[in-house]
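Lab notes, practical 5.
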Amino acid sequence: MNIGIIIGRIGGVDGVALETEKWIEVFQKMGHKVYTISGQFEGRKINHMHETRVQEMSFFSPESYWEQKKAFFHPDFNQDELIEHIHLYSKVIEQKIVDWTQKYKIDLILSENASALPSHISMGLAIKNAVKKLNIPTITHDHDFAWERGDRYNSPHSEINKLINEVFPLQLPNSFHAVINLHAQKTLKERFNRDSVVVPNVMDFSKPYAQINNHNKNIKQDLGLDDDDILLFQITRIVERKGIETAIRLIHMLNNPKIKLIITGNYADDAGSIYYTKLVDLIHELKLSKQIHFAYHSFSTNLISESDNNKLYSLSDAYAHARACTYFSTYEGFGNAFVEAVLAKCPIFVNNYKPVYWPDIGSKGFNAVMLEDNVITDKALREIEKVIFDDKLNDEIGKYNFELGKKYFSYDTLEKKLTELIELSKKM
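Output from the prediction step:
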């Protein structure tokens, strides 16, 4: 089968792009040919045999930037020019999608979040019109929806809101949905009476990961730490919903100068550095400057394994030296960092982030110290201390969670789900 993937941006560390790469890998393992059309191929050369770049599809194109600004951030009084712009560029993108589909004889279209979140309105409209015209079975891989982003996609223009409601999510007879959590499945059914298949985010449990090697064995020394320091890692971006302040408070409550928190995320992810500044203020207030380390300069999220650059480490290297990971998010669409820690056989301290963690992950039986509303109770603190200092328990938890992760969130799981989706497409 020839499978065509439509995505605004692929490559880099964006969650949608990362999962798309995994789908491509598993589709190819299943024997399918995969062709990708995108506005941006980040950090890699385009394979012109299978990849097509359409500049207008990029989130950073002048066309997309202008329409987002005028639709949501700096609207003009008159919406007519904006509406005309969206329809004009949607026709440009639509024709390029149609031409691409016909050139590669696409049997099944996969729209990667482009038909769920209106972060590129003209592309979403183009996909709808192209799918309607082509009548090819289409999966929309819906990672998140407009209503999950608060007021972000509420426009003062009534016509824009009407357009968003008609296009996102895609609701055509030849389209069906893959969502990443049970809450999205329930909401899609309640709001639009649309059925969907839950496809969790996955990791490749068949490859070695988070192992100490010659490249990373001196990581403590390179970070300016002592050999007997105990490292907890916060391996996420620095954005407010990650709940990093709870990890900082945990270090304070543990009251052990040998325990260090290593934060790998870059403060540049925090718009205006407002949240980052709050974290720095909290660190100084609690007098933890010697125990909290912002180490973004030493870690690259683009590195997969060993690097020739001795000053850069991958996230795999970070997990290799982590005694445990802190993951106190207040909201996640799924929770890639949790599954990544499971893959690394690294114990996790987690907040029960609503509405996803317990129904989709925690209820599977993972052994993790779980907080409610990021409150560190005396009981939770004792459990955390035991995980940190009990070697046998720490090792057992890592191995136990790994086996559960392999059962529920591996490439084998993804292959079963993709097979289910392909069978659905054949009935359309």
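Observations recorded by the TA: Residues 267 and 291 are 18 Å apart (CA to CA). The chain has two domains: 2-202+411-426, 219-408.
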